[in-house]
Specification:
The structure is a single chain. The chain is of the alpha/beta class and 278 residues long. It has 2 domains: 113 residues, HUPs (Rossmann fold), CATH 3.40.50.620; 123 residues, Rossmann fold (3-Layer(aba) Sandwich). The protein is 33% helix and 23% strand. The strands form 2 sheets. Strands 3-2-1-4-5-6 form a 6-stranded mixed beta sheet, sandwiched between helices. Helix 2 packs parallel to helix 4 and helix 7 packs parallel to helix 9.
Length: 278
């Protein structure tokens, strides 16, 4: 256990998984969230090497050294916790293809949050949900973790800096995987008091589409709650990409409200892209 503790009952918990000695970003992220939310943090280092051959990480917290297959160990140690945090390779495409991460996404029984070396969330995935109970849909097979060539990459568009970053990431991934891009704009559910109107959503999607290279992306503008409509629009997609908006709460600190729901319930992998630093 680390020095970050809260004696109140029901304290939330985070496990940081260290594989290939990648841990600077994942530990920074986990400790920041823990301090904000009074969560406990465990750091678990997994290796197939002999312990005497391992280098000292020099972390400012106690690290549990465990042996075995990294996926088996972290899937086991992550059971019953609120977040399992791991650090990805630096290259975003390599992160999607990384065999360890591909297997862990499928095996994890809690919300898996993947961060870069700077501690920024880049992806999240989970089973039926974080703090959410739902019956598994027997018609949905386990999604592949790598976008299939010729598939659809769905991205939420609302004109915000986080959305712009998400679109940029999705465009680059679509180009590398020969996928079709689908832009999804969502507007409010009631009356003139709703700040985001249909025209706002249409304009935001049209502006993004006009700036993208050929072939032209698919464009969808729908009314409703953002997470619900993104989930609907991504049912046949190989990847869903959303921007991370700053919100409060443990899970919101990780993903943002829309990202939280999408990561829990989407039928495909979800990528969370943070807004550029100010």
């Amino acid at each position: 256990m680390t020095t970050v503790r809260d004696a109140r009952p029901g304290t939330r918990s985070i496990v940081v998984g260290v594989v290939d000695d990648r841990c600077s970003g994942s530990l920074a992220y986990a400790l920041e969230v823990a301090l904000e939310e009074s969560a406990t943090v465990r750091v678990v280092r997994v290796s197939t090497d002999h312990r005497e051959d391992r280098t000292e990480l020099g972390l400012p917290v106690v690290t549990e050294e465990l042996d075995g297959d990294p996926v088996d160990v972290l899937a086991r140690e992550g059971r019953g916790v609120d977040l399992l945090v791991v650090e990805t390779p630096r290259d975003p495409v390599a992160a999607l293809l990384d065999p360890f991460l591909v297997r862990l996404r499928r095996r994890s029984e809690t919300l898996l949050v993947e961060v870069d070396r700077h501690g920024e969330v880049v992806r999240a995935s989970g089973p039926e949900g974080w703090a959410y109970s739902a019956e598994a849909d027997p018609t949905v097979s386990t999604p592949t973790a790598v976008p299939s060539a010729g598939g659809v990459i769905c991205v939420g568009v609302d004109g915000s800096p986080a959305s712009t970053a998400a679109v940029g990431w999705a465009v680059a991934m679509a180009a590398q995987t020969a996928c079709t891009l689908r832009l999804v704009g969502v507007y409010g559910t009631s009356g003139a008091a709703v700040a985001r109107t249909r025209q706002d959503a249409v304009d935001a999607v049209a502006t993004v589409a006009s700036r993208l290279p050929t072939p032209a992306p698919q464009s969808v503008v729908v009314q409703g709650e953002a997470a619900d409509r993104l989930l609907d629009a991504s049912r046949d997609a190989v990847l869903l990409v959303v921007g991370r908006h700053g919100t409060s709460g443990l899970i919101h600190s990780a993903l943002g409200g829309v990202g939280e729901t999408c990561a829990r319930l989407a039928r495909c992998p979800v990528v969370i892209v943070p807004a550029p630093a100010r």
